[in-house]
Amino acid sequence: MAEEPSDTPETAEEEPIKQRKNGLYPGVSDELAENMKSGWADTELRDLRPVPQAAETAARRAALSARFPGERLVIPAGNLKTRSNDTEYAFRASVEYAYLTGNQTEDGVLVLEPKGEGHEATIYLLPRSDRENGEFWLDGQGELWVGRRHSLTEAEKLYGIPASDVRELAGALREATGPVRVVRGYDAGIEAALTDKVTAERDEELRVFLSEARLVKDEFEIGELQKAVDSTVRGFEDVVKVLDKAEATSERYIEGTFFLRARVEGNDVGYGTIAAAGPHACTLHWVRNDGPVRSGDLLLLDAGVETHTYYTADVTRTLPINGRFSEVQRKIYDAVYEAQEAGIAAVQPGAKYRDFHDAAQRVLAEKLVEWGLVEGPVERVLELGLQRRWTLHGTGHMLGMDVHDCAAARTETYVDGVLEPGMCLTVEPGLYFQADDLTVPEEYRGIGVRIEDDILVTEDGNRNLSAALPRRSDEVEAWMASVKG
Question: How many helices (H) and strands (E) does the chain have?
């Protein structure tokens, strides 16, 4: 990795570009500074078309405008975050900002100014790097270091929103009058500029509205979710093909294999991949992925590709590493499969959101009573939640631009709400018998099974977006054999 730039020409009118303490060059000569200003071709992009979701983002902004008439609304993308010293984490724009604009660049801010009966939207962005003051080659975020960014004119064409220089926004917001709301937690500078104009309660109302707006997906979003799932299916196939290499190394080989598919076909993974072999499958969010992969054990792979528009899949399969379930593994796996079948069947328009969870939990409770692990009757087990020692988590969640989407929605519209066509959720029951659980037979200990699919609520029922990945135990074995060739 090249050293970052260390120096800058200074002028009386401008603050100097930050210098690197231990850079190798002491300064920039006047001749070099002048030389770097000229001799560059015009690279303005003049044939740009709007981003594919431009019509959808416009409709979303219109709905937001209607909900908060007469109020200034400020939605930041966020800023770069330091990973260590002078390196940053890969940037991911706030979901609220990306949902409303389609833009994904750091430091961006969407502002809706009250005008007439509605609002006038402006997207505030960093313009192209300045070539007059040397920013483009001397600043650590200059274009010769991190890549070209769109001009404001280009941004207007792409996103269908008038664009302005974000560096002027904080000052303008300090002088602004009238009611204002901001989405908090992404841009400290913007929040500081509004500190005497906003309240936590009013800002939370804005955040909640934007979360609930995503509960029902439009056609563009459904298409993106299907793309994410299709890439994820291919990622699972990639993993099955290299299980022998994972056995020779560790769970990291599985994580890296899936990541390759996510980066080639999408933007990234939608969340940290869980590549949990053997007893690690009993740790719900096992993301260390540094353990051994052994023939005869199960692999619980929970992973999802995120598309370039930030929509993520979330799929889990529990696979026999050697391609064949043992008798006890199959017994536990088939119980989870039966519970998932019941859960998926309960996903219907008009059904309560909780119904699919209750249906899956009932099946698992019945199995635990049948196996003698907990005393019945089943109604007693469910009333007291005794099955939770081994089922642990809820049976699913909303899915979209966040893997746990719509998390700020009100309880009455989410968990206590009713399913509608266009909602997309996961159904993911599991059974987890910890390696140190003395209340279960020794042969169960260290076995964890979860099966998870992404389910779209339709007008007449549901559609399993991830149905291309086999789920039934015999079909899983046949599929693995086929993939391995």
Answer: 17, 17
CB 28 within 8 A of CB 159: no
Amino acid identity for residue 323 in this structure: G
Confidence of residue 485 (pLDDT cuts 50, 70, 90): confident
For all residues of the chain together, what is the average pLDDT? 95
Integer Cα distance of 292 and 477 in angstroms: 21
d(CA 377, CA 356): 21
**Confidence tier at 14 by pLDDT (50, 70, 90):** low
Query: b/e map of 37-66 (b: 16 or more CB within 10 Å)?
Result: eeeeeeeeeeeeeebebbebbbebbeebbe
pLDDT of residue 22: 83
pLDDT digits (tens, 9 = 90+) for 363-379: 999 999 999 999 999 99
Given a contact cutoff of 8 angstroms between Cβ atoms, the answer to whether 64 and 112 are in contact is yes
Closest C-alpha to 282, from 442, 445, 453, 473: 445
Provide the pLDDT for residue 200.
96
Per-residue pLDDT at 10 exceeds 50: no
In sequence order, the 6+-apart residues with CB closer than 8 A to the CB of 406 are 211, 212, 214, 215, 398, 400, 414
Going by C-alpha positions, the residue among 39, 15, 222, 233 that lies closest to residue 133 is 15
For the CA atoms of 96, 99, 103, 108, the dihedral, rounded to the nearest 10 degrees, stands at -20
Residue 405 has pLDDT above 60, yes or no: yes
The contacts of residue 105 (CB under 8 Å, 6+ apart) are 77, 91, 93, 125, 126, 149, 150
What pLDDT score was predicted for residue 12?
34
Length of the chain in residues, anyone? Answer: 485
**Which DSSP helix (H) or strand (E) runs through 104?**
none
How confident is the model at residue 9, as a pLDDT? 45
Q: How many CB atoms lie within 10 A of CB 2?
A: 5
